[in-house]
Amino acid sequence: xxxxxxxxxxxxxxxxxxxxxxxxxxxxxxxxxxxxxxxxxxxxxxxxxxxxxxxxxxxxxxxxxxxxxxxxxxxxxxxxxxxxxxxxxxxxxxxxxxxxxxxxxxxxxxxxxxxxxxxxxxxxxxxxxxxxxxxxxxxxxxxxxxxxxxxxxxxxxxxxxxxxxxxxxxxxxxxxxxxxxxxxxxxxxxxxxxxxxxxxxxxxxxxxxxxxxxxxxxxxxxxxxxx
Length: 227
Known about the structure:
Layout: E1 2-6, H1 10-22, E2 26-30, H2 33-41, E3 49-53, H3 61-70, E4 77-81, H4 86-94, E5 99-102, H5 107-118, E6 130-132, E7 135-138, E8 143-146, E9 149-152, H6 155-166, H7 174-181, H8 191-206, E10 212-216, E11 220-224
Parallel strand pairs: 1-2, 1-3, 3-4, 4-5
Antiparallel strand pairs: 6-7, 7-8, 8-9, 10-11
Helix pairs in contact: 2-3, 6-7, 6-8
């Protein structure tokens, strides 16, 4: 993989780069948010994944992440940070991160998360948009629309919502949803599904959609328009 690494702690940055290079990845390392933003937005670099420190001086990691998503750069992004609060994690994921790793962490865990994100998920690209209720999903652009509002989904949110929109009013178990958004051998926990359902519900609320994801006790979740 070709990886962009943005971390202002030079020692940590070099340690991560050296380890990932040993694992046969190609790594471009930046020690500042200013340089990182330039590298991140240059599409000619063709990165497969980005690792971004959230607490960068001058231009912070979330600003870089938002700029990438606004430019339709949809590569997986892992946020690394010392901010461990639940609201901090939610903010990072809501702004387009695919994973959130709290410092200090073991380099082997970072490598495992990279492998999990690198596994090819089920194919979701389709020429025709997916629609249900007042929602329209442009799969290629990761863009979810409702009336005059729109937002960009993260890759995991996209795969989960595709499953729901292709089979609305169908109950999906957590295991079935895991198969839709993660490789079957990915190092994940079943609770990750519940986390992403929470994120998708926040997305629907932000759009003022009349569509909901309903919990079905003992069975899973379904997408519906309440009567």
